[in-house]
Amino acid sequence: MKNHLSDRINSMSTSATLAMAAKARELKNEGKDIIGLSLGEPDFNIPDFIKEAAKEAIDQNYSSYSPVDGYADLKQAIANKFKRDNGLTYGLNQIVVSTGAKQSLANIAMVMLNDGDEVILPAPYWVSYSDIVKLAQGVPVEVPTSIDTDFKMTPEQLEKAITPKTKMMWFSSPCNPSGSVYSKEELEGLAEVLKKHPNIFIVSDEIYEHINFRGGHVSIANIEGMYDRTITVNGVSKAFAMTGWRIGYIGGPEWVARACNKFQGQITSGANAIAQRATIAALNAPISSIQFMIDEFHKRRDLVLELLGEIKGFNLNVPEGAFYVFPDISSFFGKTINGTLINNASDFALYLLEKANVATVTGEAFGNDNCIRISYAASEKELREAMARIKAVL
Ligand code: PMP
Ligand code: GLU
Predict the structure, then answer these.
(1) d(CA 285, CA 324)
(2) Ligand 1 in reach of 321 Cβ (< 6 A)
(3) Which residues, 6+ apart, have CB-to-CB distance to 231 below 8 Å?
């Protein structure tokens, strides 16, 4: 049959994280004993006080359309959170609540990019950045980093990637997929370069800010000269284990917020009302209420590093945040293991899925084809079993 779909969707790739999770689910349903380490999703239950707030919201009949950019008291809670955790002052007219940080990112791309505008993406980058940018007719410009610089972009690399067409730079810290955390000094180094190019805007994706084992998360909007050109993206999926509740938000220049509000008003309207009310409870709570999850991720990170460290051929950085390890497995390329030739990271991830029944994600999806991503948002028992299986098949 003739393909009647738009060029836009035909040229878009399927989200590799979601595709791998779907494949793992399918194999599980067929009765295979799959351990899913592909999806970045906390395996904890949502804290009870957040559930209670949602139940109350239902009883209080929060059932109508909300303001497109979010309830005013939620935006106030977000403003307070930005002040408390990030030292950032955003007025309510600078904040937009959306259906997940994914929508926040899509809003930004759609309101900021024109045909051919370049967006610098230090690679590895989160899987959806590049397709979201392309959807908005932008051009992703990948800046490859490696394990040697802890997968962080240097100021020299940034400078070299800038052209007259550069409009934005998008990055996450803590980083999905590498777990790397930019220090204040490293962000200052990038800011020094950006100061020379006042027309470049920054998307700072801070959705993992609390899952940070070195402490001291730094927002680039807080570095001198960067506030007016940064859009800070965050959400409740990771820190509060609220992935399915779909709440993300931005703080940024008022003109950007106004444009996102206008765009969202034609696409989805306000985010789910009940989830917005629950988010107020989440954001108003002290960080100590979620410390148990952060401590648990820290323990699991150490466990996974220890177990993977025992497998010859895995080259590992020490991720300081998020809940992923991103080992360089290129030493296996060109080798035949138990009859299977491994040519690249996708072959490797497929081999682990088929032979060890462990689902991971190829680094290719994140702009680095020497690595695979392993999510350790799984129980200690599953992680031990998964690492033992990987070791056995290699
Ligand atoms: N940014 C990063 C870096 C992520 O890992 C995720 C995870 N899904 C998102 C954005 C989107 O989060 P959500 O849409 O669930 O808020
Ligand atoms: N952010 C998570 C991940 O990277 C969730 C999946 C997704 O939204 O793509 O696995």
Answers:
(1) 26
(2) no
(3) 108, 201, 202, 203, 204, 250, 251, 252, 253, 256
**CA 208–ligand 1 middle distance (angstroms):** 9
∠ CA 178-307-40, nearest 5°, is: 35
Q: Is the C-beta atom of 243 inside 6 A of ligand 2?
A: no
**How far, in Å, CA of 322 to CA of 375, rounded?**
9
Question: Looking at 227-377, which runs of residues are DSSP E strands?
Answer: 230-235, 248-251, 324-325, 335-337, 340-342, 358-359, 361-362, 372-375
CATH topology classification for 48-285: Aspartate Aminotransferase; domain 2 (3.40.640)
Euclidean distance between CA atoms 299 and 268, whole angstroms: 39
Q: What is the CA radius of gyration of the chain?
A: 21
Residue in 353, 376, 307, 305 with CA at minimum distance from that of residue 44: 376
pLDDT of residue 337 exceeding 90, the answer is: yes
User: From the CA of 105, which ligand is nearest?
Assistant: 1
Model confidence pLDDT, tens digit, residues 179-201: 999 999 999 999 999 999 999 99
DSSP 207-219: TTTTSBSS-----
Is residue 18 within 6 Å of ligand 2 at its C-beta? yes
CA 282 – CA 185 distance, rounded (Å): 31
Best residue for ligand 1 mutational test, from 102, 242, 373 (most atoms within 8 Å of Cβ): 102
Where do we find the tokens 């950006």? 194
Give the distance (Å) from ligand 2 centre to CA of residue 199.
30
Query: What's the CA-to-centroid distance between 42 and ligand 1, angstroms?
Result: 12
Q: How far is the CA of 359 from the centre of ligand 2 (A)?
A: 14
The atom number, within ligand 2, closest to the CA of 176 reads 4
Domain coordinates in residue numbering, the chain = 2-45+290-393, 48-285
| 331 Cα–ligand 1 center, Å | 30
pLDDT in tens, 134-156: 999 999 999 999 999 999 999 99
Q: Confidence band (pLDDT; 50, 70, 90) for 282?
A: very high
Backbone angles phi, psi at 145, to 5 degrees: -120, 170
2-45+290-393: CATH class? alpha beta
